[in-house]
DNA sequence: TGCGCCACTGGGCAGGATGCCCAGCCGAAA
DNA sequence: TTTCGGCTGGGCATCCTGCCCAGTGGCGCA
């Protein structure tokens, strides 16, 4: 991993272009970039087989689905209960992602809920499991920087 | 918002299908769903103008870009320094997202770095700003549940 | 210095998908 | 019952895709 990886300027421009206008095709892309279509096509393929671009899945807004409340929960789990806890959390649809982190056997997960009241139900379901000792929840109020990748891509391209 | 929104079964199947095989076109989609092409096309358009589907931006893997280390930082900020802190954090490429949360004027941000050592540099840059009083960092070790949306979509579709 | 490799170019080709149109049908609401 | 919105199934021209090719230029290596 990371062996032959790395992004050059053209790769960076491809990703940024794709991030800004996801619907454009290879041909339009090659026109904007000022390269031959075959080049753009080859680069795109390489970026995907490289794993740099994982895919083009639809970005779904949980709020538009009826889940406008987002929260982060820090979980303290009982020793050795990791696998069970993971399985449990994976089975809860409102758990959007889960990380294990350094610290006291902690996990961090992102939750959504239909309302603040509903969040209580979600949390109850999340922590209503033997392996979980304690949970601390932080409700998201604003999202000044939504998940982004462009600045990082540009820096990676600059660093050659 | 959220007025006429909501997802029916067909919408749910469209999103799930798109999430699993993002490259398929409208025609192939209509074939898999067993509906007319016009229907699939109209639904997709509606989902996008609804805001349920925000877009189809490329999913870029920071690790493949040379940033294999992910961390979450909880920041305590000085009263009234919110706007400045946001601007500062937005200017750091390694800050992938930023949330303001309930609690003691806290913020939570996701960071990436080239290595554990590099993470120190990133954190220094993040907290090297007047408005930030204290920072607690949790390094991500594993990601048992990567950011996902399918289970939530299926539940939303089931709930009518 | 000369050679081979690799990426890029510019072009061509057939098949397929897209965007857009239409008339007809049907169920639900007024 | 009438109207309306959504779905169907079809057609159309245009455009893009995936794939192919030969030619060219830069670069590292012997």
TrEMBL record, chains A, B:
SMART domains: HTH_ASNC. The lineage of its organism: Bacteria, Bacillati, Actinomycetota, Actinomycetes, Kitasatosporales. Keywords: DNA-binding, Transcription, Transcription regulation. Residues 7-68 form the HTH asnC-type domain. GO terms for biological process: response to amino acid. One of its GO terms (cellular component) is cytosol. One of its GO terms (molecular function) is sequence-specific DNA binding. Pfam families: AsnC_trans_reg, HTH_24. It comes from Streptomyces griseoviridis. This is AsnC family transcriptional regulator.
């Amino acid at each position: 991993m990371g062996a032959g990886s790395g992004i050059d300027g053209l790769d960076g421009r491809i990703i940024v272009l794709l991030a800004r206008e996801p619907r454009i095709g290879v041909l339009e892309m090659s026109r904007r970039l000022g390269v031959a279509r075959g080049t753009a096509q080859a680069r795109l393929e390489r970026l995907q087989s490289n794993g740099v671009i994982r895919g083009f899945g639809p970005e779904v807004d949980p709020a538009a689905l009826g889940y406008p409340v987002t929260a982060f929960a820090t979980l303290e789990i009982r020793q050795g209960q990791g696998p069970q806890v993971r399985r449990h959390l994976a089975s809860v649809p409102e758990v959007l992602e889960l990380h294990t982190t350094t610290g006291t056997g902690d996990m961090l997960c992102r939750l959504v809920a239909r309302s603040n009241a509903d969040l209580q139900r979600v949390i109850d379901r999340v922590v209503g499991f033997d392996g979980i000792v304690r949970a601390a929840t932080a409700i998201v109020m604003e999202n000044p920087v939504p998940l982004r990748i462009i600045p990082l891509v540009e820096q990676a391209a600059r660093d050659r």
